[in-house]
Design a protein that fits this description.
Blueprint (H helix, E strand, L loop, with lengths): L16 E4 L5 H14 L1 H12 L2 E5 L3 H8 L10 H5 L31 H11 L2 H7 L11 H10 L17 H6 L1 H13 L2 H12 L3 H11 L6 H11 L7 H6 L1 H31 L1
Parallel strand pairs: 1-2
Length: 285
């Protein structure tokens, strides 16, 4: 069983991992974004790309991860705990808490434009009541309550130790940054992994077959983000003039998508040329 997110990049897991594209799943997008915010832009993408090289498939929805593992289509996949721990017909799924630990907060709010603010406030109070918070801990729902004592009980029952305060890895998650680059992150993932999944797995298979001294350079090339962190900030500023959520803007911006696509193609061509050079050197010897 993997214990850390880095474990999912091990060559042992080649062809054994399923994931949902972040453009199709809020859960998957949060996982990718949390990795980027925890490890940083360069190291985060290196981890995501290496994980992408171990994929068996890309599912259409988050539920497809647990379903695929239960059906034996692949062996591992990142998912939310309650999807994995829900009651099932078989015992074919085990859930492992990976470090660093990412939590996805489920939010509730009273809207400013609400027609009945008093009723909305009463509903929030209902959700925060002890009875409902206990209901969240049931096997059918499997959520972690927000009430301190109940949260501690829920975490202890699952063997999870959590520092306070926590949103992601014990730190405050930058939700505004996540929202502003939502479309950009999805575009990079789609261009690098989704549309080229078979090609990516084949390239990593070639890297895995090489001696370590020859594989390191190629692995670094396959793990390099197609654009720098500085360029990503430039694109964010260009696409979010009012500072609001700009998710759709990137997905509709053909120029941005083409820039990412061209950068990915250039890196893959460089990889092919370097692999061919190493192969020729090996043949000469």
């Amino acid at each position: 069983m993997p214990r850390r997110w880095e474990d999912l990049t091990r060559p042992d897991y080649w062809g054994h991992i399923g994931i949902t594209a972040p453009s199709r799943s809020g859960t998957s997008h949060f996982i990718v974004e949390a990795i980027l915010q925890t490890y940083g832009w360069a190291d985060g993408w290196a981890l995501v790309f290496r994980l992408g090289g171990n994929l068996s498939t890309i599912t259409a929805r988050s539920f497809g991860i647990t379903d695929g593992i239960e059906q034996g289509r692949f062996g591992l996949g990142p998912s939310i705990d309650f999807l994995a721990t829900a009651a099932r017909t078989t015992d074919g799924i085990a859930f492992s808490v990976l470090e660093p630990l990412f939590l996805v907060p489920a939010s509730v709010a009273v809207l400013e434009r609400s027609d009945d603010r008093a009723a909305a406030a009463r509903f929030v109070e209902f959700l925060l009541s002890t009875d409902v918070q206990l209901m969240l801990m049931s096997a059918q729902l499997g959520r972690i309550p927000v009430i301190d004592e109940l949260r501690a009980l829920a975490l202890a029952s699952r063997g999870i130790h959590l520092p306070e305060p926590v949103l992601v890895n014990g730190a405050i998650f930058d939700a505004k940054l996540s929202a502003r680059r939502y479309g950009l992150v999805n575009t990079i993932f789609d261009e690098w992994i989704v549309t080229r999944r078979q090609e990516v797995t084949e390239k990593w298979a070639a890297v895995n077959a090489l001696p370590r001294d020859k594989a390191e350079g190629l692995a670094a090339l396959l793990g390099r983000a197609p654009i720098s962190a500085a360029r990503s900030l430039e694109l964010i500023e260009m696409s979010a003039g009012d500072g609001s959520v700009a998710g759709a803007a990137f997905e509709e911006d053909a120029a941005v998508a083409e820039e990412i696509r061209a950068a990915v193609s250039a890196q893959f061509a460089q990889f092919d040329a370097e692999l061919e050079r190493l192969t020729i050197l090996a043949d000469d010897r």
